[in-house]
């Protein structure tokens, strides 16, 4: 099957080794799980389309030209289990748009995080495990914004299955600190789009339709939101 050939090339094997910190046995387990996941989700990765469950999208590139993925917890409209395909496609698109190292950055704005939408521990564990192997060593930096006490349960579940290497890339910051870091690490039009996303997602007068329209306007890629402007990057 095609996934076996694609996922046993030398670069993928090296990526798994880096993600496991050079642990050969762990990297073999990771590779096997990654191939299993790719086969199971074959139709998803072929279609590169899914039901939209939140505003997760590629919002631009940082100052090192790495694809920058953004999502706000306030936008989540479906349970975490139903959000998994969109998470996979966002990172799949980012890996295709990335440079040779295949890395991207993630900004997860936890404002208005919903415990009810994220109450399935099995879905969270599945997401963390599958994501951690399929996109092992793909993330250069993860910014968690306004991470509340309410979200600690989700973090505890994720932390248990994330490698130490990945955990070290995660930074928990306030919105104010996030704004300063975006100006420093990202800058340009992408920074402007991220700051405007912070604004509209905290605007109590903004409607769901306005926030959805903003997400569409600030996406630079047609995956996973399914919208594309003439100047955007498509597949």
From TrEMBL:
Residues 58-178 form the CRAL-TRIO domain. One of its GO terms (molecular function) is phosphatidylinositol transfer activity. This is CRAL-TRIO domain-containing protein. It comes from Polarella glacialis (Dinoflagellate). The lineage of its organism: Eukaryota, Sar, Alveolata, Dinophyceae, Suessiales.
């Amino acid at each position: 099957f095609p996934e076996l050939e694609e996922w046993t090339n030398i670069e993928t094997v090296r990526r798994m080794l880096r993600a496991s910190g050079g642990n050969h046995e762990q990297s073999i387990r990771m590779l096997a799980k990654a191939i299993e996941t790719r086969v199971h989700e074959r139709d998803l990765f072929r279609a590169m389309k899914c039901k939209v469950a939140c505003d997760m999208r590629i919002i631009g590139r940082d100052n090192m030209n790495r694809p920058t993925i953004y999502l706000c917890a306030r936008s989540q409209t479906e349970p975490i289990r139903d959000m998994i395909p969109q998470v996979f496609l966002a990172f799949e698109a980012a890996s295709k748009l990335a440079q040779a190292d295949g890395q991207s950055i993630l900004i997860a704005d936890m404002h208005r995080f919903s415990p009810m939408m994220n109450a399935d521990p099995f879905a969270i564990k599945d997401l963390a495990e599958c994501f951690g192997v399929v996109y092992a060593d793909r993330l250069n930096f993860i910014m968690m914004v306004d991470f509340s006490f309410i979200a600690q349960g989700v973090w505890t579940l994720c932390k248990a299955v994330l490698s130490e290497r990945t955990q070290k890339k995660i930074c928990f910051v306030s919105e104010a600190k996030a704004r300063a870091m975006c100006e420093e690490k990202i800058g340009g039009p992408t920074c402007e789009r991220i700051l405007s996303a912070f604004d509209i997602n905290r605007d109590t007068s903004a409607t769901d339709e306005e926030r959805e329209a903003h997400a569409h306007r600030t996406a630079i890629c047609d995956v996973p939101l399914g919208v594309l402007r003439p100047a955007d990057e498509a597949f």
